[in-house]
Write a structure and sequence with these properties.
single chain, about 100 residues, alpha+beta, 2 helices
C-alpha cells in the first residue's frame, strides 16, 4: 500500500533548511530516501520505525520516529503519524536526533 505524505509547517521549514545548507547535502539525500521509504512502506526495516512516546499527534495519535541516518553524530530523524485520511502520513518534523 502506498501512502501520500502531508507535511506540517514545521516539517516543511525543516526540509527547506536542509535544502538551503549545501553542507548538509548528504543528510538531505538520506532524508529524501527516508521519505520515499515512508511513502512505499512505513514499516521498511531500514527505517527502524518505532513509536516516539514523548510526543502525541492530534487527538492523541501515536507519533513514530524513522531513522534517516544511523551511527552518525546528530543523525537526522523523521517524526510522523498516520492520517489524517486513509493511506496518508503526516510528517511532523525532520530534525536531528533528540
Amino acid at each position: 500500500m502506498a501512502f501520500s505524505l502531508i507535511f506540517t509547517e514545521e516539517a516543511r521549514a525543516n526540509l527547506r533548511e536542509l535544502e538551503r545548507d549545501r553542507g548538509l547535502a548528504k543528510r538531505l539525500k538520506a532524508v529524501r530516501k527516508t521519505l520515499a521509504y515512508l511513502e512505499a512502506n512505513p514499516r521498511h526495516s531500514s527505517l527502524q520505525t518505532h513509536e516516539y512516546k514523548s510526543l502525541a499527534g492530534p487527538g492523541g495519535k501515536k507519533v513514530f520516529e524513522a531513522y534517516a541516518e544511523q551511527k552518525t553524530p546528530a543523525a537526522f530523524r523523521v517524526f510522523w503519524h498516520y492520517g489524517p485520511g486513509r493511506e496518508q502520513l503526516t510528517i511532523v518534523a525532520i530534525t536531528r536526533h533528540p
